## 1
Amino acid sequence: MLKKNEEFLIDITGNGSEGEGVGRVDGLAVFVPGAIAGEKVRVRIVKVQKSYAFGKLMEVITPSPSRVEPTCAHFGKCGGCALWHMDYAAELDFKQKKVQDALKRIGNVEIEVEKTVPSPQMTEYRNKSQFPVSAEGIGFFAPRSHKVIDIESCMIQNRLTDQVTKIVRDFMREYKISPYNEETKKGDIRHIFTRTAKNTGQVMVCIVTKNNVMSKADILVERLKDIDGITSIVQNINKKDTNVILGDKNILLWGEERITETLNGLKFTISPHSFFQINTLQTEQLYAKAIELANLTGQETVYDLYCGIGTISLSVAGKAKKVIGVEIVPEAVKDAIENAKANNIDNAEFYVGKAEEVVPKLIQKEKADVVILDPPRKGCDQALIETILEIKPKKVVYISCNPATLARDLALLQGYEVKKAIPFDMFPKTPHVECVVLMSRVE
Ligand code: SAH
């Protein structure tokens, strides 16, 4: 039996789904964050469970040729990224394997997953930041913890976010504004949320507060609006003591209520509560590939389920007879309807509700020839999969940010064959991977 604080030399034989190295001691799997497959390392056991243990990387005895010096000063302390110690080729390879393993192991899908499509930007690629604010600072949570690490500059964020957090930090210090405390559930400012439109340059800053009144808000607004590019400053009120970042209520403090971005030549207006893919340039490539895979003739009715603000729906509208989008967030559907108008698209319809509840009603009127799925991490509701099997579309294009739930859902789509699986690196330096899969109905 392994004991805490014991040290071992181990061979790292693979990387787990979070990017951590995996080796064995006396047959027990040991997960070692920061280690790379092929390395010999010295680890100190920090946690022992029944069927696995966690080890802290103490020394790399034989480094992998893929090992690089991390360029982010917060690497290891910040829980945001996990892969700064790997070169990009190894990172892309890891993501391909992660998808391959999930499809095989969970979905029993026999397909050769293609190489991961690299991100056009490796740093500053995120268009959204959501920094927790606490007594320790403004930044990011430490790995597997709710302790905030103060971060002055995050390399995967747009540089403008550094200016925003600096202004808020100074403002809070100067006017003794209290940060939210997760334990006492008290305090004023909870999160700083920003969204930057890469292609149009518009920026929204949203200050999430615990209370209705934000004291000295006018002073903060005066300072923030001087940052070049900021077009919208919003206060969001979140009174709930949960991990959900945004509350229901937004108050416009300055500028426009929403920001506008373009994707592959189409215009999209985005509300604070609407989902928008976080890596704009990679999203353009991902959507282009999804549309290519759908291979539409112009005669099809397409369902775009989990459609958000209609980004995919409007991107395929020009190639289909009709597109029907379904989305659970009402603000996003409102954005989608306006986005259709703004782009002069008249063959797209949108419905608010849970896909699993709306689609059974939709199919009474009009079935789809092609279904596009882009669910959140938890994947599709089982009832929706059953409804899709009833519709019998010729093709299903599944976009996923979680290979495990993707694999589970693919296995449930009986009567369909996976034709292509392509990982996209949407989240460089993190272990997350986006993937697009084409399925065709077996006649
Ligand atoms: N296709 C969009 C959004 C994808 S994210 C894009 O690429 O931008 C997943 C979306 O599913 C989110 O907008 C989320 O609000 C929505 N969603 C979550 N659960 C849902 C459900 N049960 N039915 C419909 N939409 C849902």
## 2
Amino acid sequence: MKVDFHTHSKASDGEFAPKDLVQIALNNKVTHLALTDHDCVLGIKEAKDACVDKDITLIPGIEVSTTWRNTSIHIVGLFIDEDHEAMQELSKLQFNTRLERAIKIGEKLSKAGFENAYERTKAQAQENAIITRGNYARFLFSTGQFRSIDDAFYKYLRRGARAYVHSQWMDIKDAVEFIKRANGVAVLAHPKRYKITNTKLRELIAYFKSVGGEAMEVSSTQQRPCEREYLGELCLKNDLYASCGSDFHILESWREVGRNLDLDEKLKPIWTHPKALKYFA
Ligand code: AMP
Ligand code: MN
Ligand code: MN
Ligand code: MN
């Protein structure tokens, strides 16, 4: 068994169509792949179809944008019924917030000299895709004016940069509720990637748990051992299920689908959650 519970496709800010993502996962011998696009479930059907008669199982997922104490926090929903009305409601809500913001970012970038930034960025994604700052960073890089995608992100899109547009996302509680209504499990994504102190992180986890959150990501592909250990401790202490994922978006040598995602034996892996069982039969 080789799992990856956090990946993106062209339905949001990933580089590959869902079926091509599945092929990449297969090449890496991944047996269970969750597609967790930002705020939408558009890519799930194609990914599922691509898994038929292959040695890989698709786990329907989503990564929901929320705001907690003025910080943007991501909640992954796993094992969701993607056709459930709760997911349709959620996507509609997020799509509109996202669209407004994406257009504003586009306007700022156009003023900065990147003409028709929104249209050109949109053209690189799937129809009706969610456009995030990740899409814009890739678009900017494609103009040839930046050293890397990261460089473009830093210069124009990071908080406080010239084309940054703030967005007030939903409360974590609402995201967890949507996920649970759709029969999914709510997972706190990449807890160490928020620029908050460890004290605040512990408060975040406590809040997440108090509103029904059931799991947190402990292992990610590119991570220092001490970080993984620390997250493992927090996971145990809060009696949460442990998840793991690459957060794959594009081909990079250091972030492959399914790579380096082991979970410590002490932890309760998310695939032992009752809602996960049918995917691991
Ligand atoms: P948003 O949800 O629109 O605020 O955009 C967040 C997305 O931007 C993340 O999911 C990443 O895909 C991408 N991102 C975040 N930080 C960076 C970075 N330093 N370089 C490139 N992309 C990034
Ligand atoms: Mn992203
Ligand atoms: Mn994220
Ligand atoms: Mn992600």
## 3
Amino acid sequence: MDLKKPRGTEDLFGAKAKEYIAISTIIRDVMSKYNFDEIITPVFESADLFKRGVGDLTDIVQKEMYEFLDRKGRSLALRPEGTAPVIRSVIENKLVQPENLPLKLFYIGKYYRYERPQIGRNREFNQCGVEVFGKKSPEADAEIITLAITILRSFGFKTNDLSIDLNYLISGKEKLEYISELKKSLLLISNLCDDCKNRIDTNILRVLDCKVDQDKLKSVPTMNDFMSQEDKDWLKVLVKLLNLIDIKTVLNPKLVRGLDYYTGMVFEIKSTHKTLASQSTLCGGGRYDKLLKQLGGPDVSGLGFGMGIERVLLDLDSMNIKLSPPKELDAYIIGLTPKAKQFSTMLLMMLRSDGLIADFDFQDRNIKSAFKQSEKLNARNIIIIGDNELKENVVVIKNQQTKRETKVVYNEIVKTIRGK
Ligand code: HAM
């Protein structure tokens, strides 16, 4: 039997696992500064949640969702995204209460999409995301974009490494008018790709961000020409606020996002490097003021974003940025005889209970390879114990930085290793 990981998944171990932990620690640290609380929801939910939440006609639901029946015939899905599950939980647990608003939640977890794997695109991937409920203002939109940028800057991204696309999705009668004009214009274009042809009747706005037909779409009307004065004012304030804190955005009227729940501001943050090729979007999000009500909850506004952790890590790697500090031991113990080895085990426990990071040569290596091992583990001190040292009630400590060896009595060991 071929026991291999499924296509599009990754094992994280060694340096990669450490980078993943380090990135999660930084995210949690920034989130706590922005006063967000963590929420952890199941990796599978009823398939219906995503059909109703993300949209029955989106690629994510139609083509990419891992949907299955459980043993009782219930239709479930591995979560393809984080917003709908958080809303389900917020409604089910009645987390939206006047005294809780605005409710600011974040999550870090695994998500699943049946996509063609390539660099920066997996079938199982990690995403960190935020959702904010009950804050309906351009200031709230600016805070969310600022948060995403702050997180990326905390990893080491600089202004030039990132570009931010912004758009405002119109709704109501303006949207209906726009759709009718867009349809007229699209029907005049010959040989659109099959996806676009289908989308004209099912999900027309998605035609705008088709990668294949971009050249043919240059002359179609843009949504911004149909914006109401109120929407225009909102967008103007948002751009002004972002400019004030030196966040430059590019207005992209073709940015529609692949999920149906957005209303109002949407944004995507891309890497400006070539590392991720066509998967350069590190983060995407926006406002979804109708979704809570649509899923059976109170009429409360919402907004948020999701950030792909694998893409961020790949990009940081290309910039040679390491988030996890290199592994370092305070002390590595080498016992030269069976008696010394027994003593070493006791000493090891003592050092660890004193809060030091210590290890011991369990492999019966000769002294030369034990020294090599200590170098591999980046030990700052090597403690050497033989029968003579046991007789004298001392150990030899070699400081790897100064290369000095000193005989140390037992109750001075911790102090010497700490360098005090
Ligand atoms: P999304 O744009 O579908 O939005 O995903 C957010 C981010 O997840 C993407 O920008 C990308 O970095 C990463 N991502 C998506 N698919 C994959 C994949 N197959 N492999 C690796 N990384 C991937 C959402 O999921 C929304 N729920 C975001 C949101 C939250 N909007 C409002 N609140």
## 4
Amino acid sequence: MRALEAFAPGKVILLGEHSVVYGEPALAGAIHQGVRARAVPAKRCSLKAPPNVSSSARALLADAFEKAARACGRPAVELSLEGELPVGMGLGSSAAASVACARVLLAAAKKAASPKAVAAVAAKMEEVFHRKASGLDHTTSAEGRLILYRRREGQGAGTVRAVKSPRPLKLLIALAGRSRSTRNAINLVEERVRRWPKRYERLFKQMGLLAVEGARAVEGGDLEALGDLLNVGHGLLSSLGVSSAAIDELVHLLRARGALGAKLTGAGGVGGAVIGLYYEPEPVIASLAREGVRCFGCQLAGPLAL
Ligand code: PMV
């Protein structure tokens, strides 16, 4: 058997993180940066952990991989992973690793690898990483495009609607503070929901509405409306308690540098990724990078410039 390889993209959530865990819709798209999995023939099905991961992360990865391997009939391959996605910053690194592993395992087991089949195997890994995961991250990675997603309680895969953009949908992605755990941020929100269910249900409903309005703004090519939705979305995430001083500072910096809208993306916490929506982010990326801000660009949807 030849070596098998598969790539899976990371993702950004435009609108609806956290509320998606509680059944509200979310809008998210795949980015160019991701994770590549490679498999070579071996005696038993295993995953070589990437270098520089802590012993606790290594144990979690091994546990997650075991679940995916079992779902694919444990083909006789050894997998390794590499990628350029920042880990633990809200850009879906664990989901991309899960999807890349799922693709290679399914190929090694000579099973069909439709986005649905890939997402089902990747879900086994994401459940280990995030416990109460909505399925948004790995579904976006497996679909590889901009989608409106809704979790279906107790039914495995959620519903997916592709969202098309008539114009280039370009973002600046910047990194604030240090990496953090998605699980902690989900637990923090869960604790508030447990104490004050009615109040947080209201907020989640609002966040879900923003995601649906966001999909409509993208489809109508109304980037100014989308920018406003991102700003409001950030306000609601702050009210859930998942933003931080470092994240807020970066959000305000991007707005001061002309963003149509800016917000945190992903679970949030002490640090994480922030997105800014621009017609043309490239000059802002160049000047912020010169000032030492960790940032890069991506296009989520719409026609690519030649
Ligand atoms: O793990 P992150 O930071 O990419 O974000 C996950 C998004 C959440 O809505 C917070 C959790 C989930 O499972 O949807």
